[in-house]
Every structure is written in structure tokens, then in C-alpha cells.
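testing teh design pipeline on a random one, pls ignore if ur not involved
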């Protein structure tokens, strides 16, 4: 996609600031998933449908993530000023580093993210403050969603000020559209939302990719 700048620019924000505790000793973001670091898979999939990539993580993760992304699309790092405040704070930090009006946020542990679905999320978010998938009539997929950056940053700031870390909390004050499963299936397989937390999930994903 052309490298546009300005309000129409679409950014991909990849969240990687967690500690992968269910995964074990290693950082799952850079773990080798069937020959390619998991975060690299996410970035490579997003590249075709966004104008730029922002990676949110902790300072000490930067060298390993830079290695994982070497030779791939350029990425800007958005470092958590205060680490370990949860994924919602990571979304806030990542969105602050974007320049366009809208950004897609994707967790680094969603290696099957579907570009076509991302494009549909951008389209559905137009004129609104977010487009958020919902699975099983229940689970809002806030870490594979499109946000209008300015109101989402503001909503995250307010939530954190209230001492609220829940990832759905900022949505309470946003004008957002929900995409339910029937609609999502029109755009892409729901495996787009599969996220990898444990070694067993990682091995299963690896087997499918090989
Ligand atoms: N910036 C930031 N991102 C986070 C934080 N916690 C989780 N994330 C990210 O949010 C996404 C979803 O989080 P989880 O699946 O819980 O990942 P995780 O926290 O690394 O793994 P667990 O320790 O097993 O929960 C991942 O992309 C994480 O990198 C955090 O405290 N700060
Ligand atoms: Mg976690």
C-alpha cells in the first residue's frame, strides 16, 4: 500500500508488552513459530493493509523484537512509559505513536490475523470511534479491533485515572460498532482471532503452519 501521510493514513499497532507468563520463560512475541517469529507473522500480515506499523512493548524487549522484524516492514516502537499496566495501557501507548485518524490494534499472539478482516474493520469504523469484533455473542475482541486514535486514547487515560485496567472499560464511553460472528465470517475465517497463550497452543499452531 502507498505510504500516505495524514488523516487517511491507516496504522497497525501491534501489542507486545506482556510477560507471556502462560508461555513460560521466553517472550512469546519473538518465539519461532514454524520458522518465523510470531510477531513477524503479525506484522507481515498487516503490512499489506496498513500504511505503517507501531510496536508497543517494554524497553528491554526492543533488541529482540528488532531482530525478529529485521528485513521486514519498517516499524516504530512505542515504549510503555510505565510497564505492566495491562494491554489497555499498551493500546493507549501504541495509539499515541500513530499519526492517522484510525488504527488497527492487534496482539502479537494472533498470528492468523486476516488482512481482509482488518480492511473490513477499517471500513466499518468509518465515522465511528471503533469497530470491535464480538465472538459467541459475548467476547469483545479488543485486541483485534480498529479505533479512532484520539477518542480511544482519551478513554484509556480516563479509565486508568479511575484505576480501571479492564480492557473493555474504554469502550463504555466510545461510539463503537460491533461486528458479530455472522458478519465476521463474511470477511474471513474466525481463526483470525485465535491467540496463542501456552506452549501447547503454540505447538498446535506450529503444526498447522508447517
Ligand atoms: N503494553 C502492555 N501490553 C500487554 C500487557 N499485558 C499484556 N499485553 C499484551 O496484550 C496482549 C494480550 O495479552 P496476553 O495474551 O495476556 O499476553 P501476556 O500478558 O504476555 O501473557 P500472559 O502473561 O500469559 O497473560 C499481548 O499482545 C500482550 O503482549 C501489559 O501489561 N502492557
Ligand atoms: Mg496477560
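output:
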Amino acid at each position: 500500500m502507498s505510504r500516505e501521510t495524514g488523516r487517511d493514513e491507516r496504522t497497525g499497532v501491534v501489542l507486545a508488552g506482556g510477560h507471556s507468563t502462560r508461555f513460560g520463560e521466553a517472550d512469546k512475541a519473538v518465539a519461532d513459530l514454524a520458522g518465523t517469529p510470531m510477531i513477524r507473522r503479525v506484522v507481515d500480515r498487516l503490512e499489506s493493509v496498513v500504511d505503517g506499523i507501531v510496536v508497543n512493548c517494554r524497553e528491554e524487549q526492543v533488541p529482540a523484537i528488532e531482530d525478529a522484524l529485521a528485513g521486514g516492514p519498517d516499524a516504530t516502537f512505542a515504549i510503555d512509559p510505565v510497564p505492566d499496566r495491562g494491554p489497555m495501557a499498551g493500546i493507549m501507548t501504541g495509539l499515541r505513536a500513530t499519526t492517522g485518524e484510525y488504527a488497527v490494534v492487534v496482539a502479537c499472539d494472533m498470528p492468523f490475523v486476516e488482512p481482509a478482516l482488518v480492511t473490513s474493520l477499517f471500513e466499518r469504523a468509518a465515522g465511528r470511534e471503533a469497530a470491535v469484533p464480538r465472538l459467541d455473542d459475548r467476547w469483545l475482541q479488543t485486541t483485534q479491533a480498529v479505533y479512532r486514535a484520539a477518542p480511544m486514547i482519551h478513554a484509556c487515560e480516563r479509565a486508568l485515572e479511575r484505576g480501571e485496567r479492564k480492557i473493555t472499560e474504554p469502550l463504555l464511553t466510545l461510539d463503537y460498532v460491533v461486528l458479530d460472528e455472522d458478519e465476521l465470517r463474511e470477511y474471513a475465517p474466525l481463526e483470525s482471532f485465535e491467540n496463542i497463550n501456552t506452549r501447547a497452543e503454540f505447538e498446535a499452531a506450529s503444526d498447522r503452519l508447517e
